[in-house]
Amino acid sequence: MRSQQPSPHPSEPEMAGPFPPDLHDVRHLKLKAGLLVLWAVVSFGATYFARDLQVLVFGGWPLGYWIAAQGAVLVFIGIVVVYGWAMNRFEREDLEGREAPPPPSAQAPDRPHG
Question: Within 10 Å of residue 67's Cβ, how many Cβ atoms?
Fold first, then answer.
């Protein structure tokens, strides 16, 4: 392991360290798992049922074509947007949690009686 030494050139940017462990807490993992499941369903589900979807015609083209050509791409863009929005929200909540004053302790400090 390399030790963190001060940079010999103060103008050089400092290298980022490893990800903080709070990026892997339960809410982040649930978000990632849910979006990954949605991605798998759209990618593989539409492909699996493509022949069944060819019966439905929309705008002169089979529905399977629309899903393959447009729908999957729009869903993937939606997944990226949802992930970005949710991560920003999580970061704001974490920042507010760190900046909030600690709750008052259950036991008051001992004061001398005057």
Answer: 21
What are the φ and ψ backbone dihedral angles of 30, each rounded to 5 degrees?
-65, -40
pTM for the complete prediction? 0.59
The structure tokens listed for 29 are: 């993992």
Within 1-114, where are the H helices? 26-40, 46-48, 50-53, 63-66, 72-99
CA distance 28 to 34: 10
What DSSP string describes 37-70? Answer: HHHHIIIIIHHHTHHHHTTSEETTEEHHHHIIII
Instruction: Report how far residue 97's alpha carbon sits from residue 25's, in angstroms, rounded to the nearest whole number.
Output: 15
What backbone torsions phi and psi does residue 7 show, to the nearest 5 degrees?
-70, 135
14, 8 Cβ separation under 8 angstroms: no
Backbone Cα Rg of the chain: 25
- For residue 105, what pLDDT is reported? 64
